[in-house]
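Q: what does this look like with 4'-deoxy-4'-aminopyridoxal-5'-phosphate bound?
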Amino acid sequence: MTRTVYLNGAYLPEAEAKVSIFDRGFLMADGVYEVTSVLDGKLIDFGGHCVRLARSLSELEMQNPHSDAEWLAIHRELVAVNAIEDGMVYLQVTRGNPGDRDFAYPSDDVTPTVVLFTQAKPGLADNPAAKVGIKVISIPDIRWGRRDIKTVQLLYPSMGKMAAKKAGVDDSWFVEDGVVTEGTSNNAYIVKGNKIITRQLSSDILHGITRAAVLRFAVEAQMEVEERAFSIDEAQAADEAFITSASAFVMPVVEIDGAAVGAGKPGHVVARLREIYLDEMRKAAV
Ligand code: PMP
């Protein structure tokens, strides 16, 4: 079955969806994106993604081409026509194609390019990695300084994933000024006793939708939350470590730069948080 994708108002077979070579997304990485998970055919934390999308667009002085209700309708249509039970919807808005390549933004009346597509991931919530945990290495964070904007310029995170792959592990954590910023495509946490420690929000990290939800659930479950930076040394000596993202949910980290974290297997705090997160988010899914 060929996949149906969305391009600028039309639902098309993927092979027919074409974008101009002058699109600023292609030439300049001038665009933003969101990834929303789908479980049992429903969208997880959709409202959170809409709020962040609006903020990313506004920080780049781009108009939001759709209302939240319109975005929801497009997402739902793609999930339905592609019969997605478990998987994700990828959304991207770029500044479009005014014609000639120019560093300056084109005038406001240029129509943005809007692309959405689905990816099926059967059994997404039962990812076996959640049972055994993942391993990470640390690498320097040399990304730009506006990591709070969810742009499509993902080359360095891709290099970070490749560095992990070459090292025989699952992912990389970025380190800047001696402390962890975040993972290549996720937020990073450690656990000490009943306390969850994760870096405070700023333009140094992406403001994870999953992060916000998990911290809220942690407080509701009487866990302590401390928002501050931590070093790799501190993480290696922690009781537990984990990451969060819209597609990995809550995922234990059991090894950092070759050193086992805690017992070297997923701990009970991360297991509990994952369970609460999935339960609550399934209930609130649209
Ligand atoms: N940080 C980075 C750099 C990311 O790419 C992501 C994934 N979008 C996250 C954190 C986690 O954000 P979210 O929970 O909203 O998926």
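Residues 268-284 form the longest helix (17 residues). Residues 129-284 form a domain with the D-amino Acid Aminotransferase; Chain A, domain 2 fold (CATH 3.20.10.10).
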